[in-house]
Amino acid sequence: MPGGRGRIGLLVPANNAAVEYDFWKMSPEGVTIHSTRMRPTKGCEPTDINEFVRELTEAHELLREVSDVIVYGRTYGTHGNAELIRKFGFIIPEDAVERTLNRLGLRKIWIATPYVKERTLEEVNWWKSRGFQVTGYAGLNKVRGIDISNTNTFTIYRLVKKNIGDILKADAVYIACTASQPMR
Questions:
Q1: How many C-beta atoms surround the C-beta of residue 68 within 10 A?
Q2: For FRET with 88, which of 75, 124, 162, 170 sits at 20 to 30 Å CA-CA?
Q3: DSSP collapsed to 3 states, 95-163
Q4: Are β-strands 108-115 and 133-142 bridged in parallel, bridged antiparallel, or unpaired?
């Protein structure tokens, strides 16, 4: 029975073409994915907080009745507005990664992103603010959501391999925004 084991709500940016596929592919049998979309945005943080709250409220209303849990499947707004997002009960993927790294005692990370340098540095600084040592980082200089979604797994592999020296100094590799396409 579809959804018999559980239902995951997923809040997705409208210009992300990969995350739903990834969730469906990773979900065990009987777990269904129920998504809604938010407008794509420019920049990393909302400029109009009231509009952001309206969008979160609408998304919550659409997903709450059909979902056992709701994942905030985007990085937009999470660094400066995590408390606000959490008030809706959404799971923020970076929070889950942070909890896992802490539980495993992993404090040194290397960071890969699909983003431009400014956005990559925001990610690096956020992790540093959480008490992690960043041994290095690299980004792919992508801006548009569709370009990020079209990143194939081999491109990520090459990025990691190119930086293996810094990676070997880390306890873990954090790959942000993993909305990538499988290798073909």
A1: 13
A2: 124
A3: HHHHHHHHHHCCCEEEEEEEECHHHHHHHHHHHHHCCCEEEEEEEEEECCHHHHHCCEHHHHHHHHHHC
A4: parallel
Q: What does each C-alpha distance from 159 to 30, 108, 110 come to in angstroms? A: 35, 18, 12
What's the length of the chain? Answer: 184
Look at residue 46 in the predicted model and tell me its pLDDT. Answer: 83
Round to whole Å and give the CA distance between 111 and 116.
13
Cβ proximity of 46 and 77 under 8 Å? yes
pTM for the whole structure? 0.84
Extract the tokens encoding 161.
């391999």
CB 143 within 8 A of CB 114: no
Cα separation of 66 and 2, whole Å?
12
